[in-house]
Amino acid sequence: MPVDQCERNGETVLQAAARQRNLNRVYSIMDAGADVDAVSGVDTVILGLSDSAADHIGGTPLVRLNRPPRSVGIKAQIRAKFEVLDPVGSVKGRIAKRMVEQAELDGLSKPGDTLIEASHENTGIAIALMTAIKGCKCIIDLSEKMLLEKQQFLRALGTTGVRMPVGVPIESPGPIAYVAKRFKEETPSSWILDQYNNPENPRAHGHGTAEKIWYRTGGRVDIVTTGAGTRGTVTGAARGLKENGRNVFPVGELNEEKSEYKLECIGYDFVPADFDQTASGAWIKISDRDAFRLARRLANPYLRMHPEDTVENNTILLIFPDSLKNYPPSLHTNLA
Asked: Which residues form the Tryptophan synthase beta chain-like PALP domain (predicted)?
């Protein structure tokens, strides 16, 4: 709610935020020096102690990058949104919270029920945490690319993880989405969240990520770039920034490998139903080799391929979906 509207209603911004609390629009301000304008337009503000880790999902910092851009001759202002500092350790906390809470509101799940998801990587971990918070059971149909350590983490959260192969025909009984449907048929009081076709996936970014990017940059952002797995981040954030006439140029990155891609979260052999190709202003295809090499240098492929867009008065925001610690084997191979 805008500050002036709060004043007309005779309540403070914090009171209005508390009154209007709803799904996945949580803005965490932990420092006492927070400016009142910083919370304008955001529904929930959390100061100090909160009731649940889920309340802090999405409250990730925005950081100015200095030396990495200069090292490759980039003159634009580069900002990075560090999703690794989310309670679930990745950008997927946003969609997990939104999908789980919406299923609860729609009467599709309640404490004690089982939530099922087919996940290549971070979404499974995020949903496991959310179901633990909500008191639900959880089955995650995993890609074989997921590290065994992550499967052990799921088990520690009380989640059942089943590993399935990748690269099998979509119509065969092998794909993880097919197996998730089978689990639902065999499990009473269960529901598939279905991140690939669930409209709450892009909505989480349209209502949450986009707003936070805008307010934390003070509206000073020209280009937003992110990797594309389910395409929920780029679709939702692009829609959210454009809906209010904001002149931002979104860029999505796709893995150019057709099947044997090694990146755990980027690259699928099908197109998710909620993917909006027109939402992004440009799509960049990168190989596993380039992705690993550039990740080590902390440089984004878009900035290398389009030096004409690196003028000093542009602000480019990179969404870093997680961190190096999630992929130690991948980033230390001989690919780079």
From this structure: 55-252
Catalytic positions are 92
pLDDT in tens, 35-52: 333 333 333 444 567 788
Q: Which residue has the tokens 């029920």?
A: 113
Report how far residue 195's alpha carbon sits from residue 88's, in angstroms, rounded to the nearest whole number.
Answer: 16
- pLDDT-derived band at 7 (thresholds 50, 70, 90) equals very low
How many whole angstroms separate alpha carbon 115 and alpha carbon 126?
12
Q: Which residue has the tokens 């209502």?
A: 207
Three-state secondary structure call for residue 229: coil
Global pTM reads 0.70
- The Cα–Cα gap between 317 and 81 comes to 7
The position carrying tokens 């580069």 is 78
What's the rounded Cα separation, in Å, for the pair 144 and 301? 27
- DSSP 8-state class, residue 296: H
Say how far residue 183 (Cα) sits from the centre of its chain. Answer: 26
pLDDT at 104 over 90: yes
- Percentage of the chain beyond pLDDT 90 is 16
180 pLDDT higher than 60: yes
Evaluate whether 287 touches 281 at the Cβ level (below 8 Å).
no
- Residue 135: the pLDDT is 95
Measured distance CA(123)–CA(194) in Å, rounded: 10
CA 269/CA 257 separation, integer angstroms: 10
Structural domains of the chain, ranges and CATH numbers in brackets? 1-32 (no CATH), 53-89+200-331 (3.40.50.1100), 92-192 (3.40.50.1100)
